[in-house]
Amino acid sequence: MEQQRRTASGPGRVLVAVYAIFALAATSRAGVQIGTKFHEAPLAYLLSAFAAVVYIVATIALARRGDGWWRVALVACSIELLGVLTIGTLSLVDAAAFRHPTVWSVYGEGYLFIPLVLPVIGLYWLRKSAPAKVSA
Amino acid sequence: MIFGFAVTVAGAATLVALWSFVQSARNRLPDNPLLIALAVVELLLVVQLVIGIVLLAGGDRPGSLATYLAYLIGSLVVLPVGAAWALAERSRSSTAVLGIACLAIPVMVLRLNEVWSGATA
């Protein structure tokens, strides 16, 4: 019996749990922002919604088996890292344009910088559970 | 919100989180005492929902009603989903999953109270 490495197995289950909490947090926040005060800062709130979608996709992809889902998770975690670095930097450089907070503002400062650490751990875990490493 | 009750809920969830992490470090699977502790925290969250609704019905208003309701209802979802995810594959990691789910509770309760005291986001 070969033991296949899966993204949602072992420590991966903890990772999926953290991702799910962020998916819930980001989705609720974006939902409230867009539902109640979208006109105040459309760009910031659309960014919130985008971040929420990335977290949802990453959570589902990490929780599923198969090479296809592994690739989806890789793309989602990469976009997430790129997003937190880009928005984090922009929010510092041009604070006036980012007065309305998103999950990724100041590298996720409002969320204990977990949004910055999470994609790094995610990508590391994906590397460890890469399909190529699974011996058939 | 009744501040003392919020502190109780947050404190209880934090204790169960610590317990989960200790059990995970000891290489233990999720066991019944831990799951019962989790159920107690969930029960406290239901009581919090009832208190929240009663206060709203009494005419008090939080800083943002939508945000308040999102935290009030969202906080109920975390533990059952976390427990289901943890029990689908029992390992020391699933014990840690319970701890992560519990850690989300004090954060949500804290935010709930901030919103109740007037914070708008």
UniProtKB/TrEMBL annotation, chain B:
Source lineage: Bacteria, Bacillati, Actinomycetota, Actinomycetes, Pseudonocardiales
This protein's UniProt keywords: Membrane, Transmembrane, Transmembrane helix
Organism field: Amycolatopsis melonis
Protein name: Integral membrane protein
Annotated transmembrane regions: 34-56, 68-88, 94-112
